[in-house]
Amino acid sequence: MRKCKLITLLFISLAMALTFSAYFQPTKVQAATDNTPVVFVHGLTGSDSNFYFIERYLQNQGWSSDELYSIDLPSKQGHQELNSSAIQGFVDDVIEETGSDKVNIVAHSMGGANSLYYILNKGGGDKVDKLVTLGGANRLTTSAAPSGIDTTSIYSTSDYVVSSYLSVLTGANNIRIYGVSHIGLLNSYQVNGHIKEALLN
Asked: What Pfam families does this protein's entry cite (predicted)?
């Protein structure tokens, strides 16, 4: 009799535990994001595929694929007028497609100079919230961060393509790192962390 009661109590306990577990079981819900769209701008001889690893990283950090856009510039030699005009049209398309007021730009190498030229000469000042350059040849366009835009310049002392002098901008958050090559800036976990922080702050 005692054994029967014990078995009954065990069944009741098990049933209660299962009911409790089912009731409070969390459901997987994809978190909605409202991140400002990011436009990636490549450098000399580059392409829109250069940011593959950075895009994958940001997706793992909560950005959705439809918040990340890469432009393939018409001039692989970095022609300021041609490329800034292309960036202008591309940003306008992204804003129209997403309904966002502004975009953030992440630019590598000469893409930094082209993006700054767009901001300063093609109306980008009203359409860009944050600018992040990676080994940017920024001073080919200007020596100072554009007014009203949160600008971060990430550069490496091991970059032998674009000198640190060309990357540093007055008024920007200039982040110096070590041991990363010019191309390595596009696939560095350290750099990715700085990009994420710059986009979220």
From this structure: Lipase_2
> What does the CA dihedral 70, 46, 189, 66 come to, rounded to 10 degrees?
10
- Residue 182's domain is classified under what CATH number? 3.40.50.1820
Contact 54, 67 (CB under 8 A): no
Query: Which residues are designated catalytic?
Result: 109, 159, 182
Does 30 fall in a domain? no
pLDDT per residue as tens digits for the range 99-116: 999 999 999 999 999 999
Task: With respect to residue 12, please indicate whether it lies within any of the assigned structural domains.
Answer: no
β-pair type (38-41, 103-108): parallel
The answer to the question of residue 196 being in a domain is: yes
Owning domain of residue 180 = 38-200
Number of independent structural domains in the chain:
1
Tens digit of each residue's pLDDT (9 = 90 or more) over 27-79 = 322 333 568 999 999 999 999 999 999 999 999 999 999 999 999 999 999 99
Q: Is residue 91 part of a domain?
A: yes
pLDDT in tens, 156-197: 999 999 999 999 999 999 999 999 999 999 999 999 999 999
Give residues with Cβ within 8 angstroms of 90, minimum separation 6: 39, 69, 71
Q: Which of 67, 8, 148 is nearest to 131 (CA)?
A: 148
pTM of the model: 0.83
